Amino acid sequence: MGLGRHKLVVLAVVLSITVLLYLLLPSGQSEDEVHKAEVPRSDPQSNANISVRTATLAGDWPTFYRETVPRYDGGGREVRGRVFAVLLLHGQAFTSKTWEDLGTLNILAEHGYRAVAIDLPGYGESMHALPMSSEKGRTEYLLHVMESLGTRQPVLISPSMSGLFSLPLLLQHPDRLKGFVPIAPVGTKSFKAQQYQQIQVPSLVVYGTRDTNLGSQSLESLQLLPNHTLSPLEGAGHACYLDHPEEFHAALLMFLSKLS
Ligand SMILES: *[C@@H]1O[C@H](CO)[C@@H](O)[C@H](O)[C@H]1NC(C)=O
Ligand SMILES: *[C@@H]1O[C@H](CO)[C@@H](O)[C@H](O)[C@H]1NC(C)=O
Q1: 110 Cα: distance to centroid of ligand 1 (angstroms)
Q2: How far is the CA of 165 from the centre of ligand 1 (A)?
Q3: Of 69, 61, 77, which is closest to residue 28 (Cα–Cα)?
């Protein structure tokens, strides 16, 4: 009997703490925050065949309740809990590690974003995964990645080859992107002008001014997106973010700050 009462007391205490914690959490959390506990850095089950790389800052999912850079709304009040995910794809000759080496993952995390880079199927540590030969397959793959990461509406950064994945997603599921950052993506000509003109997703179109091939080619289609901002990197080539990382990061942060 005494033991039973003791258990009840423990239960009551645990319940109160749970309720208290719930009430103390900042309001207006994003769905990404809610999911963070369910997405360990490399869960082999939920991330089957998805190689994920995140910031290497202390804490790894660093700033869900503590934004290092405070953000303010129009009235000057501090805005909390508006963190969203930035999902980084990569080009043919690169992997998720490119974003780590360039410092992009850490810079994004330092600014309060949940930055996640993946190795696309057939690349880097996703070498063993089946290559995706169809547009539908690649779209479903990205939707699956987003689901595994617990993010419904990330900002998608997509250089070069990864356009094969990102463009079908953008054009068929625009509601699933908070923002789009194409960097001279391949595959823009697979879609009609009219399709681009219907997409309201805020987009930052990044390209190197020396990239006269894919850079200028993709620009023809991407500047049809109604809500786009151009970010030419002067004197940079195709992998313009590698040539001018500081300008790239500055343009990216400016774009992201307008999305919350
Ligand atoms: C995932 O990888 C395993 C091998 O480890 C492979 O058999 C399977 O087909 C892959 N699944 C996908 C969807 O790529
Ligand atoms: C265009 O995108 C910006 C963010 O870059 C956003 O603030 C603005 O509301 C968007 N405009 C329209 C018409 O959707």
Answers
A1: 34
A2: 18
A3: 77
The CATH architecture assigned to 2-27+42-259 reads 3-Layer(aba) Sandwich (3.40)
**Nearest alpha carbon, ligand 1 atom 6:** 129
Quote the ligand 2 centre to 255 CA distance (angstroms): 10
**Catalytic annotation present for 211:** yes
The pTM of the full predicted model, rounded to 2 decimals, is 0.75
Per the annotation, the verdict on 119 as an active-site residue is no
- The dihedral of CA 214, 161, 86, 198: what is its sign? positive
- Cα–Cα nearest to 42, from 158, 149, 124: 149
216-258 per-position pLDDT tens digit: 999 999 999 999 999 999 999 999 999 999 999 999 999 999 9
43 is catalytic: no
Kindly report, residue by residue over 162-214, the tens digit of the pLDDT.
999 999 999 999 999 999 999 999 999 999 999 999 999 999 999 999 999 99
**Domains of the chain, residue spans:** 2-27+42-259
**259 CB near ligand 2 (under 6 Å):** yes
Q: Which residues contact 103 (CB under 8 A, 6 or more apart)?
A: 245, 249
Ligand nearest to the CA of 133: 1
